Amino acid sequence: MITVLAGGVGAARFLEGLRLTWPEDDITVISNVGDDLEVYGVHVSPDIDIVLYSLAGMVDRRGWGVMNDTFHFIDALERFGYETWFRLGDRDYATSVFRSRRLAEGASLSAVSAEIARSLGVRLRLLPITDDPLRTMVSTTAGMLEFQDYFVRRRTQDEVLKIAFAGEKRAKPAPGVLDAIAEADAVILAPSNPLVSIGPILAVSGVRAALRETRARIAAISPIIRGGVVKGPADRMMRSLGLEASALQVARLYEDFLDVFVLDVADAELADGVAELKIQPVVTETIMSGLEEKRRLAAATVRGLGLALP
Ligand code: GDP
Fold first, then answer.
1. Alpha-carbon distance 205 to 215, whole Å?
2. What confidence tier does 204 reach under pLDDT thresholds 50, 70, 90?
């Protein structure tokens, strides 16, 4: 089994490639829930949905939401004076209505996520990192913001001073999470924002220790290329927190448990620095523009981990 720690878009693209390389039934995804929010009376899990819609072949080209979705519901809400900056499409809303109803009935987020995956025909196993509330909070020059407030409403314009995870102390790993790390043949950290997508996963008690202790080899793919990003605010966030925005810095964040680090050909000169951390560098093309690029990146990662491709 390969276990993948995953955020949203970068992870979804990588997983589309990985399942062409490794049997889908033998992949477990551990998803970030720090971006979750309650909005319009429903519980939305953006990272889980991005991954599931992508694997179901129904994600919109922009990377989130359902392809060709309509926005009648949210437009109608506007009439009542609702703030509608979180654009939830009609079909997307249905997913969250189902999720919220099941949660209200007492089902866990892991159980509901499995039900949604099944209904979409997705075969790999997806586990939220925790069934407990865990919310990424961004302290900025404009005050303390919930993640989606920072990310969507204020379009990441504010300088980030600190990142915290509300609920971190009480959140327990969801059933199966620690076993999926301990029993994996390999663990892969997808190319996701290290601070707000992988960060909340590593913050849950026992997860970082499980990564240090597992016998599985662990690889990460850099989401930072030449000091910049493919999308999102990861590079700006790193700089405003006093970190260097570089692939090498991402490797340092995972140094205590990482065996293999996949970095872009454009960053080949950083490979020696990675090796000095006692992490094996793999230099390859990491921009996943099409399905073939996704498959090649996954295959290079699996080979770097020393697993034989089936
Ligand atoms: P978000 O929650 O949707 O922003 O998703 P993630 O945290 O999974 O992804 C954001 C990170 O993924 C950004 O830092 C991007 O640079 C990175 N990313 C997205 N697409 C690619 C890609 O094709 N290749 C690489 N190497 N990184 C990518």
1. 19
2. very high
